[in-house]
Amino acid sequence: MRGARHTRPVRPVVCAMAVALAATACGGGGGGGGEGGGDTGAVLSSSWGDPPNPLEPANTNEVQGGKVLSMIFRGLKQYDPKTGAAEDMLAEKIETTDSTNYTITVKDGWTFSNGEKVTARSFVDAWNYGASLKNNQRNAYFFEYIEGYDKTHPAKGKQTADTLSGLKVTGERTFTVKLKQKFSSFPDTLGYNAYAPLPRAFFDAHEAWLKKPVGNGPYLIESYAKGSQLSLRTWDAYPGEDKAVNGGVDLKVYTDSNTAYTDLMAGNLDLVDDVPASQLKNVRSDLGDRYINAPAGIIQTLAFPYYDKSWGKTGMEKVRQGLSRAINRVQITQTIFQNTRTPAIDWTSPVLGKEGGYRAGPCGEACVYDAAAAKKLIKEGGGLPGGQVKITYNADTGSHREWVDAVCNSINHALGKDNACVGNPIGTFADYRNRITDRKMTGPFRAGWQMDYPLIQNFLQPLYYTDASSNDGKWSSPQFDKLVDEANAESDAARAVAKFRQAEEVLRDQMAAIPLWYQNGSAGYSQRLTNVALNPFSVPVYDQIKVG
After folding, report:
1. Phi, psi at residue 178, to the nearest 5°?
2. 481-494, pLDDT tens digit by residue?
3. Which entry of 258, 407, 411, 547 is 20 to 30 Å from 115 by CA?
């Protein structure tokens, strides 16, 4: 969906200082069942970062908070941890005859962990809360397809309605959704956390709920000490089939992934789900088959400021194509990332699979390194604006400096100039985002996208549709928009995918953004754990990890 997250640095991890890791790494067992307790199984410990926002489903748009929400909530749909396919969870059925009007029936027998029944109103109230401008929810845009969003969350001015006109409760377990345009894949988006149900306690005792969120998932939050640890325990009365096979998870706060890795190696931590770049050369010898390097629904690109006339003018597509051909993706992914990245050959992700819309090679030769072709294309396009490109990036997270320097070295080598490309670091992510929001970019800038749900639509429309919330470069193409609209209107999934692929070809022809590489998820774990896996979103499947 079009995202207020913008082109994320792969859902940036915003961490606080790990002041004191109060509990031992392996943790202890839970107490009794029910609210506030878990089963008697062993508890595992995992590295984590404090989320920057309260753990409200419609207000959490980064991976650390998302991990917790995925453990304490279940929605209408659930994404298969292996394939990513959207499968019914609380949805008994979702019906439509026109891809605009939907009737949703909620399964009977589901409750929140405080005993409150999950009903149709649990969803409608939650979605109305998320869509309301006055609640300032970061995931509000997920509700923009629903009729009435322009009244509850106007782009300008004050809201004129508190609820979405397109949502109607029609029974204890049924409600209807009216969209403002056809969107055949709408049901498959409903596994995202923003669409989770909320109990009345969220509204009636909001501050208390924020201190100890209550959900309907396989885990309960037992305690949270900001800057130190969040402890979850299994909920014995969880009604779902995907019950946790461990006693709980202690999420320990780290601000440095190298420190977490050191604790893992010392036996003071069970799971690290972000192996630092500095350890990639030795992680296999350190951990053997307890190291995971798995494909994830993440792509890194270089975006461009089309509001800058130097990049927005006709003919610059050749310059962008030339820059793409000057980047030796194979060499960079091998040397900098130790094959934890894969050279991109399209604008989506291989984890989508064929049915989800991925196909090998839409970028074609434009994503293959060729110095001679790069020089020719850039010359035909009129040359680099000002004779140089500066790649802007935030310098406070990840290994961005290393890969930006490598990209520039590749471009400089291809063009035979020492300073055709230079890095332009911005101190903090906040400053970086402010410059993007204020349209102050003057050249290519680092962009990344982690899928919200496994559909080709989620890789294309949020980033490249005219005025989409995550279209940071403000690229616009009526042809692209038309094809996306036609794809969304298709009731047949295969025909919809075919339309989206045509839209992707428009991206290719204009080189709207330069695909760099697909990012893998990485993790390492202790000898105490078995059955450890990452889902297609690069998040550990905590509830299936066995301890002991």
Report:
1. -110, 120
2. 999 999 988 888 89
3. 547
Task: Give the residue carrying structure tokens 């990485």.
Answer: 522
By the 8 A CB rule, do 73 and 56 touch? no
Length of the chain in terms of residues written: 548
Asked if residues 419 and 412 have their Cβ atoms less than 8 Å apart, the reply is yes
Tell me the pTM.
0.81
> What's the rounded mean pLDDT across residues 96-111?
96
Q: What does DSSP say about strands 529-530 and 341-343: parallel, antiparallel, or unpaired?
A: unpaired
Please give the Cα distance from 375 to 415 (Å, whole number): 6
Is the distance from CB of 281 to CB of 338 less than 8 angstroms?
A: yes
SS3 544: helix
Q: CA-CA distance, 508 to 514, in Å (whole number)?
A: 9
- The residues facing 299 across adjacent strands are 449, 518
CA atoms within a 13 Å half-sphere pointing along the CA-CB vector of 542:
31
HEC string of 331-384? HHHHHCCCCCEEECCCCCCHHHHHHHCCCCCCCHHHHCCCHHHHHHHHHHCCCC
Secondary structure (3-state) at 164 = coil
Tokens representing 170?
A: 């029609």
